[in-house]
Design a protein that fits this description.
- The complex is a heterodimer of chains A (561) and B (316).
- Chain A has 561 residues and is α+β, with helices and mostly antiparallel strands.
- Chain A folds into two domains: 6-285 and 538-558, Periplasmic binding protein-like II (D-Maltodextrin-Binding Protein, domain 2, 3-Layer(aba) Sandwich); 317-530, Dipeptide-binding Protein, Domain 3 (Dipeptide-binding Protein, domain 3), CATH 3.10.105.10.
- Chain A has helices at residues 13-20, 27-33, 88-97, 150-160, 170-175, 215-218, 272-280, 292-302, 330-339, 342-350, 371-374, 383-393, 410-424, 437-445, 465-468, 487-496, 502-518, and strands at residues 70-75, 103-104, 113-114, 117-121, 127-132, 176-183, 186-191, 234-240, 243-249, 263-268, 286-287, 306-312, 317-320, 354-356, 400-406, 429-435, 453-457, 474-475, 478-479, 523-525, 527-536, 539-540, 557-558.
- A five-stranded mixed beta sheet of chain A has the order 16-15-17-13-20. Chain A has a four-stranded mixed beta sheet with strand order 1-10-9-8, with helices on one face. A four-stranded antiparallel beta sheet of chain A has the order 4-5-7-6.
- In chain A, helix 13 (410-424) links the parallel strand 15 (400-406) and strand 16 (429-435).
- Chain A starts with 12 loop residues before the first helix and ends with a strand.
- With 316 residues, chain B is mostly helical.
- Chain B has two domains: 2-74, no CATH class; 95-277, MetI-like (MetI-like fold, Orthogonal Bundle), CATH 1.10.3720.
- Chain B starts with a helix and ends in a 7-residue tail after the last helix.
- The chains are: A alpha+beta (561), B mainly alpha (316).
- At the A-B interface, helix 7 and helix 14 of A face helix 2, helix 3, helix 5, helix 7 and helix 11 of B.
């Protein structure tokens, strides 16, 4: 898979099956949190094992164990609709369970893995030819378990791309030209321009937009308000006004014997105290403690009966400055960077459970700079040097500058207060202003209505380009939020999209980050918290390390024997 | 009384119109938030926001939006939710049984416990029992409902690894035991504050009534004590009690909102809470109007009940 031969080789059935064998507990937790709320922790694994998809490590008597059971998961908020094209939360949850996809791209390897696709040819950069495996829709009226056809993929993608209520990325709106279905087994995807991130999980591997629904439903999307029919591992059973979903094993799932689980039951549990109580009572099978204290209490109470997974989140904490006015002088911006002590942020905000983050968060191992590579640049902390730089630049320390953050949210306020204290050490006075999400987003961030800083935790994107995009001159049709306009960086960000070789592109992404530091871009990534998903040990077959696509797993089962 | 009732009912549309207009314009005022920005979230493009705004009809001038809404309202069409694009009325109706059961049980517990203990303390004034229940009442009124509800979740978990059933609604007709297991403990706790207030009110009102001459007469003519207390004393204390109960329904309606949140029960309160935080205009407009109408209706019923309780009350 390199250069123009990207995906040209035929992917064997064996590899495809292995590709599908990924795991993850806490489907609901992720899907509910998904990209919706930056306070929610997501199971975001950190390690990149190999290019090969890892499979659950078998236990000694695994062959004899009856692999079955109902997984009980937490749903953190009611859904306004079950229709995946009308709600991001629904789209994510069903994307990982009910619906099928041509392929998926786990964040640890960054390499796409076929799912419904049997063979993929991408010789022409503007055309992908895909053949489909034999797969069947769930046996529910009016689809009645028929074969998944190329026309279903075509109808699904073309309809999803134009839905206004879901966040289809630029790829869906401006790169994808259309699809053809010359026969039942072949799909041809046509693109208007070369985009090396075509297979990323915000583009053609999007859990939401790339979901394959029956053609009949794609043509009448409102039908999904009431009924969900896909060809994924699980079929929809029931819900109660957007809560307490139940899904059950798809009896005709293409991998014989899978999924092991008979089903997944989601239970609405909004309050953290309630979730911890429900976990202890085994009403749910996993929980994400809010902090180290909660985790330690659970371990103390339940000992070896629970397993804790430490995953570095991709939801980094960010301090965004400005690139104009008094901040136009690169020395001033460098001084701000030097004033920030990431260790203190991690200790105070996450009880030490976090890792310093550069522009691309650590879980994206292929694209992120290592801590070692950043220790003398992004992560350098030197108060004296910062003061000297401010003095040299003639920075006005008599004035007070704003730091706007979102309220409510203890973590957000804490992040703002720590930033204020650290900046005060070099003489920059900061006034904290808490704003509701709408005002903060629309006016302060998008409208750049702040004279100093904005602080936030970004969404847990599954795609590294979402992070370097902050340096573009234009973000989502708006000018750079920080008013930092750099032609060289902007061009580099555009150029990397055209590099089809994986390794060269990864290097280009790293180079953009180095350039951003050299230019003292006013965007300071602080740290990524470590989440500790705690699971009862009777939940077997879990695999971590795959990002959200680790949830495409058919080998989890419950073993209470 | 019929005239009085009709006169009171005639005010209903006026009040409803006032509430509706106020809600509509406050939600769209310059200091309010843009639901489209919240829906699209960080990372959304201008193009996407514009498409969604057009879809929701929010790109039209305010007057056009208002006219459209009034027209729909006149046809009893309450619009569609912004997020799920489902008919607001259907969404509310589906959640009604949940909220009404919480409301019914908490009002029932509040009234039953409050009146019973009020009568007991009034008839046993200055005894140990009286002091004990009065002490409990002060405690009950002092402690916030949400704190008690959180304790109901936390303590059984710590002590017995037990979690009360949360997050679901099981119809009482489908599984009465599971339904009561879900709703009785939290509604009992929700009723603590109300029953404490009710107990104190019943006690003081009863004590006042029991000092009246007609009470002495009732006792002197040889009526059994139970009849004196329940038929005469309590009956004559009912007007302030019913007034208090009317207020309690409103208070407990909002208490139900907290209960639904803490116990993750997907009722009307939860629906309102989420809709307010996401600025789902059609839902907020409808639920504010709906709540206003319920509160007014309860007040009218309370007023009318005075005549039933006390035949001397006449409405003109």
């Amino acid at each position: 898979m390199n250069g123009h031969n990207y995906w040209t080789r035929r992917v064997s059935r064996r590899q495809a099956l292995a590709g599908a064998a990924t795991a993850g507990i806490g489907t609901a937790a992720f899907a509910v949190a998904g990209c919706g709320d930056d306070d929610e922790e997501t199971p975001t694994p950190t390690t990149a094992p190999t290019g090969e998809t890892p499979a659950a490590s078998p236990t000694q008597a695994e062959a004899q164990i009856n692999k079955d059971g109902i997984l009980k998961s937490r749903q953190t908020a009611p859904y306004s609709t079950i229709n995946p094209w009308k709600g991001l939360d629904s789209g994510l949850l069903w994307g990982f369970t009910i619906f099928d996809h041509l392929w998926a791209t786990p964040r640890d390897t960054g390499k796409p893995e076929p799912f419904l696709a049997d063979t993929i040819e991408h010789a022409d950069p503007l055309k992908i030819v895909v053949t489909l495996k034999e797969s069947y829709f769930h046996d529910m009226a009016p689809i009645n378990g028929r074969l998944v056809k190329a026309s279903d993929v075509k109808a699904s993608w073309e309809a999803a791309a134009v839905q206004s209520a879901i966040s289809a990325s630029n790829w869906w709106r401006n790169i994808l030209e259309g699809l053809d279905a010359p026969d039942d087994r072949t799909v041809i995807i046509r693109m208007k321009a070369v985009d090396a991130w075509t297979y990323s999980s915000t583009n053609s591997a999007s859990a939401v937009v790339s979901s394959i629904v029956p053609e009949e439903m794609a043509k009448n999307p409102d039908s999904m308000d009431r009924e969900l029919i896909g060809s994924g591992r699980y079929q929809f059973l029931s819900h109660e006004n957007g809560t307490n979903f139940k899904v059950r094993r798809h009896p005709k799932w293409r991998n014989e014997g899978e999924p092991y689980l008979a089903g997944i039951d989601y239970r609405l549990i909004q309050e953290q105290a309630q979730a911890l109580a429900a976990f202890s009572a085994k009403e749910i099978d996993s929980v994400i403690p809010a902090n180290r204290l909660e985790r330690e209490q659970l371990v103390q109470r339940h000992g070896n009966e629970v397993v804790v997974d430490n995953d570095v989140s991709t939801a980094s904490w960010i301090l965004l400055g400005r690139g104009d006015g008094i901040w136009a002088d690169a020395r001033v911006r460098q001084a701000v960077g030097l004033a920030l002590d990431r260790k203190e942020f991690i200790d105070l905000m996450s009880f030490g459970d976090g890792v310093p983050a550069g522009p691309v968060p650590p879980p994206f191992t292929a694209y992120a700079l290592t801590e070692e590579q950043m220790k003398d640049t992004f992560f350098k902390h030197d108060i004296d040097q910062a003061k000297a730089l401010l003095a040299e630049a003639g920075f006005d320390t008599s004035k007070e500058y704003q730091l706007k953050y979102i309220v409510p949210g203890d973590n957000r306020a804490q992040m703002a207060q720590i930033s204020q204290a650290q900046l005060a050490k070099i003489g920059i006075k900061v006034k904290l202003i808490g704003e509701d999400l709408g005002t903060w987003l629309q006016q302060s961030l998008y409208g750049s209505q702040y004279d100093g800083f904005v602080g936030f935790q970004n969404l847990a994107y599954d795609d590294p380009t979402s992070y370097i995009g902050f340096y573009s001159k234009e973000i989502g049709g708006r000018q750079n939020w920080a008013h930092f306009f750099d032609d060289e960086l902007d061009q580099a960000i555009k150029d990397q999209k055209t590099i089809l070789d994986d390794d060269l592109r990864a290097e280009a992404v790293k180079d953009i980050q180095r350039k951003a530091f050299a230019k003292q871009a006013p965007l300071w990534f602080l740290f990524s918290p470590v989440t500790q998903t705690t699971t009862w040990s009777y939940v077997k077959g879990r695999i971590t390390g795959r990002g959200s696509y680790g949830l495409h797993n058919g080998r989890v089962y419950i073993d209470k024997s | 009384m019929r005239q009085y009732a009709l006169r009171r009912l005639a005010y209903l549309p006026l009040i409803a119109a006032f509430v509706a207009i106020l809600t509509f314009f406050v939600l769209r005022s310059p200091w309010s938030q843009d639901p489209v920005t919240l829906m699209v979230g960080m990372g959304g493009s201008v193009e996407q926001e514009e498409a969604l705004r057009e879809d929701l009809g929010l790109d039209d001038p305010l007057v056009v939006q208002f006219g459209r809404w009034l027209g729909d309202l006149a046809r009893l069409d309450f619009g569609e939710t912004f997020r799920g694009r489902q008919p607001v009325w259907d969404e509310v109706v589906e959640r009604m049984p949940v909220t009404f059961e919480i409301l019914f049980l908490s009002v029932f517990f509040s009234a039953t416990i409050g009146i019973t203990l009020g009568v007991i303390t009034a008839t046993r004034q200055n005894t140990l029992l009286d002091y004990a229940f009065r002490g409990l009442a002060v405690f009950g009124q002092s402690i916030p409902d949400f704190f008690l509800l959180v304790l109901l979740i936390v303590l059984p978990s710590i002590w017995w690894n037990y979690s009360p059933p949360v997050g679901g609604h099981v119809s009482i007709f489908q599984d009465p035991w599971e339904n009561l297991r879900l709703y009785v403990p939290p509604t009992l706790l929700l009723a603590v504050g109300g029953s404490a207030g009710m107990m104190r009110l019943v006690r003081s009102t009863m004590l006042e009534v029991m000092r009246q001459d007609y009470m002495r007469t009732a006792a002197a003519k040889g009526l059994p004590n139970r009849s004196v207390v329940w038929s005469h004393a309590l009956r004559n204390s009912m007007i302030p009690i019913v007034t208090y109960l009317g207020n309690q329904v409103t208070v407990l309606f909002f208490g139900a909102l907290i209960l639904e949140q803490i116990f993750s029960i997907n009722g009307i309160g939860q629906f309102l809470f989420i809709s307010v935080s996401t600025f789902d205009f059609p839902v907020v407009q409808f639920l504010v109007l709906y709540t206003a109408l319920i509160v007014i209706t309860i007040n009218i019923l309370v007023d009318l009940s005075y005549a039933v309780i006390d035949p001397r009350v006449r409405y003109r």
